Amino acid sequence: MEKKEIIFGVFTKPWTTQSLDELGNMLSKMGFNGVEFCLRKGYQIEPESAKEGLKKLVSVMKKYGIAVTSIGSSTDENIFEACAEAGVPIIRTLAPIDLKKGYNAAVEEVKRRIDKVVPLCEKYNVKLGIQHHYGPMISNSMELYQLLKDYDPKYIGAIWDSAQSVLAGEEVEQGLDIIWPYLCLVNLKNVFYLRTNGPESEAKWHRYFTTGKQGLASWPRIAGYLKKRQYKGAVILTHEYSNQAEVNKLLAEDVRYAKSLFDERSTVK
């Protein structure tokens, strides 16, 4: 496996005020060659201007050696059309569930929402990538696989997130192996539980999002698995650090660490 086969991207949610050129220049200097763009209200490109905006985004990022791997946005038809015309292959979304309806009924409701999107995926040849997430969501790898198993992976894919996987109690290899047939993107982030009160009270815990070397998810093991399976997709680092004041510094450190793990010379014991 060659190092160049992996694109190392970052989700642009933390940055709203920079121009596209400023954003591309900054991310390139950090060490990224890919980007998942946050296409939402209040960002450099908003959903209403997606058609021309995404074309401009792809053109600007190309100047800085950055590929647009995906976007985080809605599943409206104009977003699919804009992605198709700009050559953006994946729209990322989550799968919230209404637990008041009961888990199984809520999942069937999610499937009905996906069913409505499949024709757009087929029409525009753009994949919908669904990510698991803690909370009232499709939250672990098996839940995500069970949600997707009857869909064509050409159009409906899975985005595996290392932090969400370990929060669900999975071994990272276990989570990746479960979802492998649908895997279209990998999110690298890390997390641990931090107690927020003293021993004299009933314990309260906080999810503390941290750097790649410090959390419950073993990035070396993740890289080892992906290298063994010859994964050739993108690896996306996110903005998600509990210490948001140093997000740029932490991201630059983490992308260097991630790249070192995917280097052919790197071995995982």
List the helices and strands and how they pair.
Elements: E1 7-11, H1 20-30, E2 34-38, H2 50-63, E3 67-72, H3 77-86, E4 90-94, H4 103-124, E5 127-131, H5 141-148, E6 156-161, H6 162-167, H7 172-179, E7 183-188, E8 190-195, E9 205-210, H8 219-228, E10 234-237, H9 247-262
Helix pairs in contact: 1-2, 2-3, 5-7
How many DSSP H or I helices?
Answer: 9
CATH architecture: Alpha-Beta Barrel
- What percent of the residues sit in helical stretches (DSSP H or I)? 25-40%
Number of strands: 10
- Give me the Rg, rounded: 18 Å
The CATH class designation is Alpha Beta
Based on the model shown, name its key terms:
269 residues, 9 helices
Summarize the structure.
Helix content is 39%, strand content 20%. With 269 residues, it is of the alpha/beta class.
Task: Write structural notes for this entry.
It is built from 9 helices and 10 strands. It is an alpha/beta fold and 269 residues long. It has a single domain (3-262), classed as TIM Barrel, CATH 3.20.20. The chain has helices spanning 20-30, 50-63, 77-86, 103-124, 141-148, 162-167, 172-179, 219-228, 247-262; strands at residues 7-11, 34-38, 67-72, 90-94, 127-131, 156-161, 183-188, 190-195, 205-210, 234-237.
